[in-house]
Amino acid sequence: MTEIGIGIVGGGYMGKAHAVAMAAVGAVFDTKLRPRLEMVCASTPASAERYRAAFGFARATDDWRVLVNDPAVQAIIIASPQETHREIALAAFALSKPVFCEKPLGASIDDSRAMTAAAAGQVNMSGFNYIRTPASQFARQLIADGTIGDITWFRGEHTEDFFADPARPATWRTTGDANGTMGDLAPHMINAALALIGPIASLVAMVETVHATRPGGTVTNDDHAQMMCRFANGCMGQMYFSRTAHGRKMGYAYEITGTKGAIRFDQEDQNALWLYRAEGPEATRGFTKILTGPAHPDYAAFCQGPGHGTGYQDQIIIEARDFLRAIETGAPVWPTFQDGLDVAQVVAATFASAQTKSWVDVSKF
Amino acid sequence: MTEIGIGIVGGGYMGKAHAVAMAAVGAVFDTKLRPRLEMVCASTPASAERYRAAFGFARATDDWRVLVNDPAVQAIIIASPQETHREIALAAFALSKPVFCEKPLGASIDDSRAMTAAAAGQVNMSGFNYIRTPASQFARQLIADGTIGDITWFRGEHTEDFFADPARPATWRTTGDANGTMGDLAPHMINAALALIGPIASLVAMVETVHATRPGGTVTNDDHAQMMCRFANGCMGQMYFSRTAHGRKMGYAYEITGTKGAIRFDQEDQNALWLYRAEGPEATRGFTKILTGPAHPDYAAFCQGPGHGTGYQDQIIIEARDFLRAIETGAPVWPTFQDGLDVAQVVAATFASAQTKSWVDVSKF
Amino acid sequence: MTEIGIGIVGGGYMGKAHAVAMAAVGAVFDTKLRPRLEMVCASTPASAERYRAAFGFARATDDWRVLVNDPAVQAIIIASPQETHREIALAAFALSKPVFCEKPLGASIDDSRAMTAAAAGQVNMSGFNYIRTPASQFARQLIADGTIGDITWFRGEHTEDFFADPARPATWRTTGDANGTMGDLAPHMINAALALIGPIASLVAMVETVHATRPGGTVTNDDHAQMMCRFANGCMGQMYFSRTAHGRKMGYAYEITGTKGAIRFDQEDQNALWLYRAEGPEATRGFTKILTGPAHPDYAAFCQGPGHGTGYQDQIIIEARDFLRAIETGAPVWPTFQDGLDVAQVVAATFASAQTKSWVDVSKF
Amino acid sequence: MTEIGIGIVGGGYMGKAHAVAMAAVGAVFDTKLRPRLEMVCASTPASAERYRAAFGFARATDDWRVLVNDPAVQAIIIASPQETHREIALAAFALSKPVFCEKPLGASIDDSRAMTAAAAGQVNMSGFNYIRTPASQFARQLIADGTIGDITWFRGEHTEDFFADPARPATWRTTGDANGTMGDLAPHMINAALALIGPIASLVAMVETVHATRPGGTVTNDDHAQMMCRFANGCMGQMYFSRTAHGRKMGYAYEITGTKGAIRFDQEDQNALWLYRAEGPEATRGFTKILTGPAHPDYAAFCQGPGHGTGYQDQIIIEARDFLRAIETGAPVWPTFQDGLDVAQVVAATFASAQTKSWVDVSKF
Ligand SMILES: NC(=O)C1=CN([C@@H]2O[C@H](COP(=O)(O)OP(=O)(O)OC[C@H]3O[C@@H](n4cnc5c(N)ncnc54)[C@H](O)[C@@H]3O)[C@@H](O)[C@H]2O)C=CC1
Ligand SMILES: NC(=O)C1=CN([C@@H]2O[C@H](COP(=O)(O)OP(=O)(O)OC[C@H]3O[C@@H](n4cnc5c(N)ncnc54)[C@H](O)[C@@H]3O)[C@@H](O)[C@H]2O)C=CC1
Ligand SMILES: NC(=O)C1=CN([C@@H]2O[C@H](COP(=O)(O)OP(=O)(O)OC[C@H]3O[C@@H](n4cnc5c(N)ncnc54)[C@H](O)[C@@H]3O)[C@@H](O)[C@H]2O)C=CC1
Ligand SMILES: NC(=O)C1=CN([C@@H]2O[C@H](COP(=O)(O)OP(=O)(O)OC[C@H]3O[C@@H](n4cnc5c(N)ncnc54)[C@H](O)[C@@H]3O)[C@@H](O)[C@H]2O)C=CC1
């Protein structure tokens, strides 16, 4: 057991999630490396100090360079807005410090490319937490095992409704491609598509703003978007992403059809995976609702009882375990910056297709 | 109460369904016109006679012209394969006899166009039964009432799995566009999209054969297909159709998002409609699972108890009621041949888009 | 194919359901006997005539003796209130005419006993329609096949909410044990318990009126009731019955645990049966949602497509098929008057236990 | 922010859960008191040391007295088997140290009574974690607010299947009342019943062993049990508890009917609460599936996004927050030892009723 000093940039939604995860991960997974909450950084001295006290960090700063350069900070988690990711990551890699970066990797494909280049030979990891639930990890296993045969179709969505109300005022979130639905929500489901099915060869897409004006301003980024695609392995697919999907709170959902069966999942009931196998007599076939438990990946560390359930915060703890393992072994643990870049490429292709109203090759981006 | 002599062409899946419906509809809906099962027609004398006896028709024939021309046959239901629809309908209209035609209207867009032209001024109706359930009729009402506001997104699917098993032999169903998934299954959901949202302005599509060879032959039509579209009212949508969707038995399902709420429906649980309204405190918002009952369209005639449920056969009885009403009043009852043609146009556009790999204007077809 | 003249006493909720069923059953099931709607009886000449015209009967009467005695009426369906069942059934049996009687068999256990005695050697059948759905018939098969092993526990409920609103006025339904929840709703689920698990040896129960006064009068029968029981085969069980269960529209639901698996069913989604089998690796176990289809009992006659669904009215058509078969063969078809009496015994035991606040032997009633 | 030294007795299932919770709670809830993992105790020096290292405690011991007496241990969590609870709690209270005790409070009602007596004036808390989910806390609020009116019926169950397989060998869990289903599982749901509805006045019960022999021994405690009860407020209820309920993994579920609506909940989908309100037009009534979110009790601290979900471990973190708050303020935080005793009384009454096969007054126990 060795201690390691953790620095987190950002103390908001995700900064807190990672702080909690780092506090808990050792006890949950009996990790070799044991995190010490060394320093937190936020935009202002006051907020940084508030986060320090709340989350239990030793020190606080309002300058991420201070954090990155501090010798007691041995690994860095970037949980600040997308425009900040590139500079911070590059500075950390320059000092050969391991970096975990929240999704999306960069604010643009250029950022993502630069970050991935800099990550070469370094410990790096991308924050795609939803693919890390026991259910979705198990879905990946089932596909890899051939349980549902060759995949013939994929449907994915990431839908929420925090901007469904047209009366909700404009904020910084309603400006900038990186903060729109394609920039902010789509990366999770695109990552899932790539992880579950494989690379996307080509796609055709629509991207649009549903409510162009809101109290307080004009909306300059996208509210929702959709695509159809062809995966490199030949499988056909469709996806939808929205922040205006009334009723959907965590609509990270997919349906996968194969030649021997099918899988369905909806993150709103994250502890259940639905599996159909074309086996046995017709009379007893149907989708089986499998509740996650110790028989599924990464579940047992949280609870010995099946069906007792893991939650959002547990996903971040799983990421923390892997980041620590990556640091310990020096070997990257999936998903890496490269995976973040793969997603960014699909996002870039999506915007291009929507603009040209035509099919595009993803490899061109 | 007046009797009317009914002739049905076809005694298979749908021929039987319509025969049962005509036997039951009077008692269910207390119709003014009371059907008399006058004549049934099938491919061979033997099968025709078998159907006659089984369903309770007075007479049988293996020649649809005999049926159409028989003076005691006062109204005609076409429940034979798609290639036969055009000729039969035209012959019936030539005698000014009312025609109900199963979906798809014709075997091709040309057929559909010719049939719709011939239907002008005649009593005509198209067999889109799924849109006639109490739940889907209620969905239409909710949208028309503005309950979920302006529609911003639509997703539809019609998925089944009767050809999901690659070992299932080739049949006549695996040849001919009219018998593939776009010809056979998609019309139901396209009709739903048009009925729920409105005309489709443009679309981009993929159409493909999943299992190109099967025991006994080559498959020359499509197993599954998908599209993205723009409705004339500006709403964005996506659809998927499949006969190889393992686990889906009656996957006629849609999700509709509006500015004030959302609707979800899946025909596999046809007696439930899910409604989300963005009203009241956040803490009590969610999708409400509404069980159909006497408060919903066309339910009360079947049962006085809510949640007691209607089934597939009841949809055909509802169609029968409307066909009789159309005959009685001489006024067309929705959906008409024109609606069948509207669907055919979208189907034609889908094939064209898939071939050209580009967006197409539906109005061009 | 032989015609048989049917007389139905009652033209309300169930009178209509049976009239429709008799009109449709021949075409649906290709029955040997073909029903002719000969005569309908209701309380007044005007209502009887109205039903005659609406349902398509040849004649009407307001005197059930006329109906029973009419030579053209060859089989009788009793769909009038419970207090009338006994007299009508006895009169019909006296003429050796087949009788189908709606649940509950009699208005009291004495009635039921007298009716069952009179039914000896006669064609007789009881109206427990819910146990006749494809799903519940399949549940019975699964249990008989040993698919879920020895049964260790049963939970049943029949819950609706038509009297949940305290502001709903008192009617004839709120007086008389035969019209309360135990008399009116419980028989369905008690019948299911007996059919699925077997005879009940002993029970302890609570019976009560939730809203003792309503606009327009005092309520003198029960709103809800519950029991715990021991089945003769040793299995333990519990049941609940209510007409004040807000939100439940057709809450005929059961859960059955066995040593090798479990079954769950809820009539509100009548086309799905949930089956758990303790087989295979833990990781893929779960309840399988089986959609009914042609592979399940009595489904195929209604529709060739699985998941397309049957509804309430179809249950009555299945009953009609069996009643006709019983008439044709002279052999009773389950469930018979004896089954109605078995249920009545449990109902009587329930009232007695509730009053004495003690366990009672069902065989004593 | 003040540190507090925590000692945990037991390092198994719950010992770990509490260790993780104490590591995470400060960052999650920004607690005033900040736990320091001071000492862990287990049966053997080796296991204790293993837990120490894994969970991050400063010290380990195999003697709980050492832990209790250690001055750096300022608060004690009892997560060892039920027979040990009493002695440990009493020793801790003797030193005026705050005690959190896992359910069931004692191994017998005598133990529970002695412990509750000793807890007078001390900081004490009982480990009923399931009632602490955002969904179940919200259910309590809804009932308290009168949203569903006066409660007329309650059904509860706690069902799992870890002993459903008759081939599973006998262990210490299959001996001793405290380790059977009534002792081990039922307390959670009884606690829920008391918390949601109020005290139980009287009950009648059945308790039994389903598989009396197992490989390796005879089973001397109960596999499943059920009761009917009358709550002090007049409400009628029924409950079921089982460790042999095939297919149920975390079947902590309840249904509550009131005069204005109803609530349904199943812990297997712990982030959803189903609410029916008898309001508005019939046509739009139904159960609303509410996904928990920041608008619900104790959710926001875990995640800002609704529907993102909490899990089992989060319940223990909520308990930790409350235990710390109780220590800080010196005021008991619900649920206390008294609540554990209230449950124990119902358990004792259940056994007595099952033995005497009669209704019993809970207050007599
Ligand atoms: N994986 C997931 O589920 C989620 C990921 N995210 C991602 O996490 C990142 C952070 O998002 P949120 O936590 O939602 O944002 P937030 O607005 O809640 O918090 C952002 C934090 O960054 C700090 N910050 C801003 N600019 C900074 C700068 N120049 N230097 C140092 N600190 C700065 C702010 O003071 C604040 O503490 C984003 O990249 C976002 O896309 C966000 C939500 C969920
Ligand atoms: N609305 C719905 O849910 C469904 C609609 N359909 C439609 O119903 C129509 C019939 O399909 P199915 O009943 O499934 O077919 P089927 O193969 O079960 O029955 C076809 C019937 O048509 C008869 N037939 C064939 N050629 C004929 C001819 N030249 N003259 C007279 N009779 C002829 C056959 O003898 C047979 O009785 C098709 O247009 C199909 O697309 C089919 C199934 C479901
Ligand atoms: N199996 C099921 O799902 C259901 C069964 N039932 C049962 O069906 C029977 C009838 O109930 P509903 O149809 O709901 O009642 P209803 O009130 O709708 O109809 C009763 C009919 O009986 C007639 N009637 C009453 N007294 C009569 C008399 N002395 N002679 C001749 N006709 C008389 C009335 O005129 C009326 O047409 C009852 O035994 C009831 O328990 C009712 C509803 C559902
Ligand atoms: N709230 C909940 O959801 C749950 C509560 N529990 C309760 O938690 C308690 C512990 O149960 P589990 O963690 O499942 O048991 P376990 O068998 O997993 O762990 C018991 C621990 O207690 C230690 N222990 C045993 N005897 C001891 C002694 N005399 N002195 C010191 N340490 C001793 C053992 O070494 C072991 O570390 C029980 O009271 C149980 O009823 C258990 C599971 C779930």
CATH class of the largest domain in chain A: Alpha Beta
- Adjacency order of strands in the biggest sheet of chain A: 16-15-14-13-7-12-11-8-17
CATH superfamily of the largest domain in chain A: Dihydrodipicolinate Reductase, domain 2
Mean pLDDT of chain A: 97
Number of domains of chain A: 2
H-E string of chain A: EHEHEHEHEHEHEHHEEEEEEEEEHHE
Ends of chain A: how far apart?
44 Å
Say what oligomer this is.
homotetramer
Radius of gyration based on Cα positions of chain A: 21 Å
Tally of individual helices of chain A: 10
Describe the protein's architecture and organization.
- Chain A is 33% helix and 26% strand.
- With 365 residues, chain A is of the alpha/beta class.
- Chain A has 2 domains: 2-129, Rossmann fold; 131-330 and 343-356, Dihydrodipicolinate Reductase, domain 2 (2-Layer Sandwich), CATH 3.30.360.
- Chain A is globular.
- In chain A, 65% of the residues are buried.
- The mean pLDDT of chain A is 97.
- Chains in contact: A-B, A-C, A-D, B-C, B-D, C-D.
- At the A-D interface, helix 1, helix 2 and helix 9 of A face helix 1, helix 2 and helix 9 of D.
- Strand 16 (287-291) of chain A pairs antiparallel with strand 16 (287-291) of chain C.
- The structure holds 1,4-dihydronicotinamide adenine dinucleotide (NAI) (4 copies).
- Residues 9-15, 41-43, 47, 64, 79-82, 84, 102-103, 127, 129, 184 of chain C line the site of one 1,4-dihydronicotinamide adenine dinucleotide.
